[in-house]
Amino acid sequence: MFKYFLSKSPTFQSLRLIQTGVQGAASKYEKAYINGQWTSAISGKYFEVSNPSNGKVVAEVPDMGVPDAQIAIDSAFSAFQNWKNTTAKDRSQILRRWYNLLVENQSKIAHILTAESGKPLLEAKGEVVYGNSFVEWFSELSRQVRGEIIESSVPSKKILIHHQPIGVVGLITPWNFPHAMIARKAAAALSVGCTVVIKPAEDTPLTAIEMIKYAEEAGFPPGVINIITSSRDNAADVGKLLCENHLVAGISFTGSTTVGRILYRQCANGIKRLGLELGGNAPLIVFKSANLDTAVDSALVSKFRNCGQTCVAANRFLVQEDVFDAFVEKLVSKVQLLKMGDGFQNGVQLGPLINEQQLNKVTDFVHDATSKGAKVIIGGKPANYLGELFYEPTVLTGITSDMKVYTEEIFGPVISIIKFKTEEEAINISNSCDVGLAGYFFSEDISQIFRVSKNLETGMVGVNEGLISCAEAPFGGIKQSGLGREGSHLGTEDYTYIKYTCIGNLS
Ligand SMILES: NC(=O)C1=CN([C@@H]2O[C@H](COP(=O)(O)OP(=O)(O)OC[C@H]3O[C@@H](n4cnc5c(N)ncnc54)[C@H](OP(=O)(O)O)[C@@H]3O)[C@@H](O)[C@H]2O)C=CC1
Ligand SMILES: O=C(O)CCCC(=O)O
């Protein structure tokens, strides 16, 4: 079957690399990495990873469960005893070596990423550059984490403050950014002296495994970085163990709010440190003063990055009535030019959805909206002619507050447009949900820019900009979008605790 696929697929060259292991790319059977050893599951079981563009199997990886995860935790705990005592300079240098290797191999990593996620190759390359930037950032930040000495009100005392690594951290990551989410979490944790057990998503473990090959080459000691691969059948049990095991000090998770809540509960008994990057429902507001061309171009980037499967993707478009028709016309004229298809084909801008669950969710949300009166301007149906998991880029108008596209994140290539009259109305609609990750608005009115930025109930705001993520900025949400911030100089806080030392009886 694999042979058939290779001979038919336009992605022949890239996948040939994956099958044969040429250039060190993923081979048909991959292994997980625990305590510096490439290893199979204790059960001997594997699960398949397939390309969502065509359903063909790309590779098989170990299906690890609780016993494997326990070994990984023990290894990480044992490695922590030495890693926590390394100097910031040592950690910085190893991270830098990892970064250099990731950069040297970024094209190969991007090919693997496209093969398992369906993401267009150009976008996969962009994600690898983006993910690598976190490794570079934290290799530099490692040496900048400083303590303080505070003057006491008692002359014979000194107050010292240190930031110390919390210990072993479990990193549970999603399929939508298989490289960047691991890089953003792992580099931060490792830079301050924590050790990690990574559990990537079932759909996209190959990019993660490839990244760890370069971590090994960079010289991280055994046990400092561990990766356990699990099928969806094992994810909940492995997650529970990571949350509840007393050797694990904290969890960092990116994914759905539903799973985030489960992890929050499971971490409660052990009062574990918890970083949560959960779902959003981002408003994108176009005010009448906006430059409409900027608004349209930025909206397309925000919405269609990774085919809409991004937690910061614009979810509800709010357009002021004065510019509604002009905006919709410009938007649709660009949406109809978007090229969807196999991520390895030249010029493709949109790939498939990751799996059947996502396809069903998008199909259901659009059906729900149209059955309640929404109008399909373009798209509105699966693109079966391209493959089983493709959905046409879609624009809907006539959106009302009872529709799922209004109340929940769609995670797909669907734009839902709502008409509003006043700024107050736009703010009220934007804030009328219990999540608050990103929000975007377009305006040339400086007072309005400050006012709206202040009033949007989100952790991040893009003003006249649709792409706001970068290593230097704090990424994170408020309300039920999560806890903590990733990236930026604040990105190590989830992985350190503050040690206060009082030195007394000084003469
Ligand atoms: N904020 C974000 O960036 C993301 C948001 N989402 C949202 O979530 C929806 C569903 O996507 P989905 O893939 O199901 O996201 P999940 O939250 O289920 O998956 C994210 C990660 O958590 C793992 N996981 C799943 N269940 C548990 C559990 N009980 N304990 C510990 N880990 C667990 C998954 O493993 P496995 O893959 O094996 O199931 C994966 O590694 C999307 O439609 C979207 O709305 C999804 C991905 C990212
Ligand atoms: O969508 C997500 O799951 C988070 C990553 C997106 C980004 O870093 O911009």
TrEMBL record:
Record-level Gene Ontology MF annotations: succinate-semialdehyde dehydrogenase (NAD+) activity
Pathway where it operates: Amino-acid degradation; 4-aminobutanoate degradation
Listed InterPro entries: Ald_DH/histidinol_DH (IPR016161), Ald_DH_C (IPR016163), Ald_DH_CS_CYS (IPR016160), Ald_DH_CS_GLU (IPR029510), Ald_DH_N (IPR016162), Aldehyde_DH_dom (IPR015590), Aldehyde_DH_Superfamily (IPR050740)
Keywords in alphabetical order: Oxidoreductase
Domain Aldehyde dehydrogenase intervals: 38-500
One of the protein's GO biological processes: gamma-aminobutyric acid catabolic process
Active site per database record: E277
KW DNA repair (keyword) present: no
GO cellular component, as recorded: mitochondrion
EC number: 1.2.1.24
Domain of life where this protein originates: Eukaryota
Family: Belongs to the aldehyde dehydrogenase family.
Name of protein: Succinate-semialdehyde dehydrogenase, mitochondrial
